[in-house]
Amino acid sequence: MRSYPMHIDGAPFDPLGGDWFDTEDPFRGEAWARVARGGVADVDAAVTAAHTAFTSGPWPGLTATERGALLRRLGDAVAEHAAELAETEVRDNGKLWVEMFGQLTYLPQWFHYYGGLADKLEGAVLPLDKKGYFAYTRKEPVGVTAIITPWNSPLLLLAWKLAPALAAGCTVVIKPSEFTSASTLELVQVLEDAGLPPGVVNVVTGLGPEVGSPLVQHPLVRKISFTGSDATGRRINELAAPLLKHVSLELGGKSPNVVFADADLDSAVNGVVSGIFAATGQTCLAGSRLVVQESVHDEVLRRVVDLAGTARMGNPREETTQVGPIATRPQLAKVLDYIDIAQREGAQVALGGGRATRPECENGWFVEPTIFTGVDNSMRIA
Q1: What per-residue string of b and e applies to 81-118 under the rule 16 or more CB within 10 Å gives b?
Q2: Residue 252 has pLDDT above 90, yes or no
């Protein structure tokens, strides 16, 4: 199996504690690589490297225009390596190749956009009510930024955070999900090969309590950007509050689709099905609830069930596959648990309701597209 050490100060970094863990392929249901299991000492090494790069060396000496030019080069490098990065994403989280490759070919736009913005972050001269004084504002980088990313679209969500941080002149320590660390480590190597100075972007891998919490609490970390669950987001806010750190949170939800009787039902049904079963429902904006006007309820339900029932499940690397596996073993168990909870609370299964039994899904973590009806807002699935 391939080994993925951490990446600190421009070089591979084996865990100081000597521990590693497996990362698994959701389609094959087996481990394909091992990843470094970091701890407090590794976090400190990464943050120290980021702080050093922020205060000395080539990075703080770059003008904003030079940072912008570098960001555009980084975007070009990502575009050149889009296919191989997408392949790693598919292998690590089971998402469809067509989705991951589409994200990776689009991802350079974040580096290009913020590269253009880098030298346009302007201050202002402020009028005062007192003579003999001159007042102005200027924009300065906040410092070492911690970026914590989830397992569903690791590189796209990383780019949303990383590109603006670099444009502002910050340095970064990334903590990817322990389930999908490989592609982040590969991306950072691509960026450094394209000219990013050592220490500007570092990656520590491992479990949330062992790596994430020490990273959030580290005194040299001034900004935290997190995408994930609301429970973890609350905890990050609590840990960051004593040092008044800047915190940005993008958390999950239970997004509703609403269909009224005067809708174009063909378009509505297509949107409903793609909005929940695309990406196997594993996005923070998936349309996991469907609210339908009573007069067209039965018709919409029939159409949604019929369309979702035709979904082609199987190998996420094949372009004809429409629904891939669940990304992680714990997520698979959680999904199946909620299916049981829904039925115990009285919801009726209109489609699916269990593990996929198709031959092409036998080794992976597949759940049939599942639709419940008769749901009210007192039920946990709502």
Answers
A1: bbeebbbbbbbbbbbbbbbbbebbeebbebbbebbebb
A2: no
